Amino acid sequence: MAAPTQEPMIEITGLSKRFGPFVAVDDVTFTVPRGQVLGFLGPNGAGKSTSMKMITGFLAMTAGRVRVCGHDVATDAMAAQRHMGYLPEGAPAYGEMTPLDFLRFIAEVRGLRGADAARAIGLAVARTTLAPVLDQQIETLSKGFKRRVGLAQAILHDPPVLIMDEPTDGLDPNQKHQVRGLIQDMARDKAIIISTHILEEVEAVCDRALIIDRGRIVADGTPAELMARSRWQGALTLSLDLTNTAAAEAEAALRALAGVAAVERAAPPDARFTVFASPRTGAQTPPLAERVAVLAREKGWPLKALYVEKGRLDEVFRMLTHSDSPDADMPGREGIGA
Amino acid sequence: MSQMYAIFKRELASFFATPLAYVFIVVFLLATGAFTFYLGQWYEAGEASLRGFFGFHPWLYLFLIPAISMRMWAEERKSGTMELLLTLPAPFWASVTGKYLAAWVFAVIALSLTFPIWITVNYLGDPDNGVIVASYIGSALLAAGYLAIGSCMSALTTNQVIAFVLAVVVCFLFTLSGLPLVLDFFSSWLPQAALNTIASFSFVTHFDAIMDGVIDLRDVIYFASLIVVWLVATGVVLDLKRAG
């Protein structure tokens, strides 16, 4: 992924949306420069779709400002919309049309004519591999193809800004891989926002992740930074070939090691331990792995496996969000006005 | 303007992409025939005119036009395509009028397919073709009025059946207000001016005037302003739904 330039393509300041007394999006501020893929993460009902609907000018905002390529969405929606491609939640399309007719319609509304339209449609079809179904009615297509029709529609005019609400929802692993490849290909010269609740997707395609919960941004950073917040980051798992009593001794020895915050043992008789480093000694030398290895050698433990854990995004996600809060399924949190 | 044309074309094509268009046209033609020949006793009247044919149009449209208009916005909102449509760089009015005009052109196509009866009446007698042309124009305007109401009712709900029922009810009020049934009720205690106002809201009053063969500017203005008002109302309703 190319390094983002300084030029912000999407500028969002103090974006808020209230539905009556309910605050769906609460003072959200961020910018996305060219070349960045921003992952919008959050539990269902956190305000992801509502934010996207406001950014694309579908939903009126209660407060705040959204500028896309310098055009204010509130005052000049059409100029902003010309620079944007949008895949709405669920990839809606006119079911009675064929993908080809549908893309022709989108091209026409977007002001593409004749050869330009044909070229744009050809490119979008090739990128989304829609060719086999171009003349079938959209409502008869599989979920994966429907989603790709929506994607083709969004990228048709090669927009500098792409907003995609769950672009890989309903795709099989191969299709997901392909769509992620497509997003990465396009990322070089575009600013892209994708919403998702598939965490592996954030690691796979996003340069930056924004976790949103109950309408507020609760975390903002690269996927690596977010994962570093996980207690699993740098933790060590070792599997020993020991009897139960020897294993208990080993556990005590591991606990006694400096800079160890916790030791967890898999269900006995399995002598598998995970050693968590305490946060403040994270930068200490020698690293935890080395010290544990030295300890294992000193004690003469028969080592079956030893590996360093990676930070777990799902753990960070659960730590920061509250999907079980009583108001999580209040009517209209997502999709109002749709 | 070009966006409106694109939206119009897509919408018109969508009528013919489903059996709806053909079912509608067949039902419309059968119903006009039945009304004209049986209820209107067109042969028995022995008159070389299409008054008996056009006279039933307000009643026919009362049920058939809401069937055209019910899906206009209800379907768009239910399937989520409204979000797609309204985030394309097209002015809002282009969507409202583009979709409306497509429905109207479809209704006019159905109406124009009644041409055999025009040929028949010319074959059998010597009708005043000027009156018939005026009546066709009046019937098209009448359909346009019903459709504008139907468009607004369709914007109110995501349920097509509710949109249909609402449109029938509102159209019924606009049809009924000029009939003796309603006017007699008021005539005993309301001054003539008030009666005229009530009657002037009626589709039938204005349509009857046009059926006499004279396209009065006042009747045209009535239909035009009614259409504009209901289309603006459609826009307002959609905007309110959008604002949450």
Q: List how many beta strands of chain B DSSP finds.
A: 0
Overall pLDDT confidence of chain A: 84
Low-confidence stretches of chain A: 326-338
Report the radius of gyration of chain B as a whole number of Å: 19 Å
Q: How helix-rich are the residues of chain B, as a percent range?
A: over 70%
Number of domains of chain A: 2
- The total number of structural domains of chain B is 1
- From the N-terminal CA to the C-terminal CA of chain B, the straight-line distance is 28 Å
> What structural category arises from helix and sheet content of chain B?
mainly alpha
Structural class of chain A: alpha/beta
Strand arrangement across the biggest beta sheet of chain A: 6-7-8-3-9-10
Could you characterize what this model shows?
The complex is a heterodimer of chains A (338) and B (244). With 338 residues, chain A is an alpha/beta fold. Chain A folds into two domains: 8-229 and 316-329, P-loop containing nucleotide triphosphate hydrolases (Rossmann fold), CATH 3.40.50.300; 236-309, 2-Layer Sandwich (Alpha-Beta Plaits). Helices cover 33% and strands 26% of the residues of chain A. Chain A has helices at residues 48-55, 77-82, 99-109, 114-127, 143-155, 173-187, 199-205, 223-228, 244-256, 288-299, 313-320, and strands at residues 8-19, 22-33, 37-41, 63-68, 71-72, 84-87, 161-165, 191-196, 208-213, 216-221, 236-240, 260-265, 272-277, 303-308. In chain A, a hairpin with a 2-residue loop joins strand 1 and strand 2 (22-33). In chain A, helix 3 crosses helix 4. The radius of gyration of chain A is 24 Å and the shape is elongated. Chain A starts with 7 loop residues before the first strand and ends in an 18-residue tail after the last helix. The model of chain A is unreliable at 326-338 (pLDDT under 50). Chain B is an all-alpha fold. Chain B has one domain (2-243). Helices cover 82% and strands 0% of the residues of chain B. Chain B has helices at residues 2-17, 20-39, 42-45, 51-54, 57-69, 71-79, 81-86, 92-112, 115-124, 129-156, 160-176, 180-187, 192-200, 203-211, 217-243. In chain B, helix 1 packs across helix 8 (92-112), helix 8 crosses helix 10 and helix 10 packs across helix 11 (160-176). Chain A binds chain B through residues 17, 19, 53, 56-60, 78-79, 81-82, 84, 86, 88-90, 92-97, 101, 105-106, 108-111, 137, 153, 332, 336-338, and chain B through 2-3, 6-7, 9-10, 13-14, 17-18, 77, 79-84, 86-91, 241-244.
